[in-house]
Automatic annotation (TrEMBL):
Gene Ontology molecular function: any one: 3'-tRNA processing endoribonuclease activity
Name used for this protein in its record: Uncharacterized protein
SUPFAM superfamilies registered for this protein in UniProt: Metallo-hydrolase/oxidoreductase (SSF56281)
GO cellular component, one term: nucleus
PANTHER family noted in UniProt: ZINC PHOSPHODIESTERASE ELAC PROTEIN 1 (PTHR46018:SF2)
Highest taxon of the lineage: Eukaryota
Species this chain originates from: Phaeodactylum tricornutum (Diatom)
């Protein structure tokens, strides 16, 4: 079975009065959508991966656990290596004291959390502004660019005319895509367009 997903107009990440939809809200990822400016109804998406827990530093912890195997068994750890899981799940700022007196701080046993990634997929559009707030600091923006002006090649037109024509048909140029990517502080921009015509 499916579920109904309703637009939100008052969400703090809405831009310029446009609605947004929260498509998915899982433990490790959120997916949002917002309307794009195109000749037919079209959505753009933001896939926002949440931070991931840091990796256990086995090279630090394993020798201490091995040195304390027998004492850990006597302390109730039927599988002494499970003490490593206890360390991995310690809240920041806490410590674990081994039977031999060795104290291991959480930050010494576990690497810092890894930042999640953010991918923006604009789809067919002349304007991605409705995604602007959702797309801030994106790792990757995938933005269509149907037409472009090539100086020295396009003799019968100019950049303004190519831009006007693209926007009039609900599409973008590389300059429009670049301006959007810059406005959201994107790390990378990939240009694309799928069409039988172009």
């Amino acid at each position: 079975g499916g579920r109904n997903i309703y637009p939100q107009y008052d969400h703090p990440l809405c831009a310029d009065g446009a609605p947004m939809w929260e498509i998915e809200d899982e433990e490790d990822v959120k997916v949002y959508a917002a309307p794009m400016s195109h000749g037919i109804p079209c959505l753009g998406y933001v896939v926002d991966e949440l931070p991931r827990p840091g990796r256990l530093r086995n090279e630090v912890v394993e020798p201490i656990v091995k040195r304390n195997v027998q004492a850990l068994r006597e302390a109730g750890f039927t599988v002494p290596m499970k003490a490593m899981a206890v360390l991995k799940n310690l809240p920041p700022g806490n410590a674990f004291t081994f039977p031999d007196g060795t104290v291991v701080q959480q930050e010494d046993a576990v690497e810092p959390p890894q930042e999640g990634r953010k991918v923006v997929i604009g789809g067919d559009t002349a304007d991605c502004r409705a995604l602007r707030n959702l797309a801030q600091n994106a790792d990757l923006v995938i933005h269509e660019a149907t037409n472009c002006y090539l100086q020295g090649v396009d003799k019968d037109t100019d950049v303004r005319e190519v831009t006007r024509d693209a926007v009039m048909h609900g599409h973008s140029t590389p300059q429009i895509a670049g301006d959007f990517a810059r406005s959201v502080n994107a790390k990378r921009l990939v240009l694309n367009h799928f069409s039988a015509r172009y």
